[in-house]
UniProtKB/TrEMBL annotation:
Organism (species): Thiomicrorhabdus immobilis
Top-level taxon of origin: Bacteria
Name of this protein: Threonylcarbamoyl-AMP synthase
InterPro entries with a match to the protein in the record: DHBP_synth_RibB-like_a/b_dom (IPR017945), Sua5-like_dom (IPR006070), TC-AMP_synthase (IPR023535), TC-AMP_synthase_SUA5 (IPR050156)
Subcellular locations according to the entry: Cytoplasm
């Protein structure tokens, strides 16, 4: 897989820090992302996508260390099931830690006591999250009820230059990543 230019990553990270929405390649489709801890950024993402905020979103990270402060994983019955699929194209719904110093905003969780997270092995997602210093939002790059974009050209057509797009190859999956509930192993998508 061809690597993306460092200048695209740098520009994307600057935009994320400014509360902007970006588009980037994932395992199967282009994703829209923003800083999950800036409410205005997430609101902008939902506005661009024309989607209600109550649904919550998936976070994507470069490694497990980027998410351990928020989720119950280490020492849990489901730890090995999760870790054997990461990094990779599997999204897990994990319970939030109780009494953590940093709380997960309800605009990410949709008001639930869980959060959906994927530790991706896509090189662009990894570069992006490492350069950003943490997880970012990952939702498909499409307007509600439209098919997800699979190129920057489609992103630009769909969103009329409202988002910066990192141009690189998709990961090769034919459909969006599977989502599983960590406690039960149940497949949700």
């Amino acid at each position: 897989m061809k690597t993306v230019s460092q200048s695209q990553i740098t520009q994307a990270v600057e935009l994320l820090k400014q509360g902007e929405v970006i588009a980037y390649p994932t395992e199967a489709v282009y994703g829209l992302g923003c800083d999950p801890f800036k409410r205005q950024a997430v609101e902008k993402l939902f506005h661009v996508k024309q989607r209600p905020m109550e649904k919550g979103v998936i976070l994507v990270a470069a490694n497990v260390e980027q998410i351990l402060d928020w989720v119950e994983l280490q020492g849990c019955d489901w730890e090995q099931s999760v870790l054997q699929t990461w990094p990779g194209p599997m999204t897990w719904v994990l319970p939030l830690k109780q009494n953590t110093k940093t709380t997960m905003p309800e605009w990410i969780t949709g008001g639930r006591d869980t959060v959906a997270i994927r530790v991706s092995d896509h090189p662009v997602v990894q570069q992006l999250c490492l350069a950003f210093g943490g997880p970012i939002v990952s939702t498909s790059a499409n307007l509600s009820n439209h098919p997800p974009a699979i190129s920057c050209q489609e992103v630009e057509r769909e969103f009329k230059n409202q988002v910066f797009c990192i141009s690189a190859e998709l990961g090769g999956l034919l459909k969006p990543t599977q989502i599983r509930e960590a406690k039960t192993g149940q497949v949700l998508r």
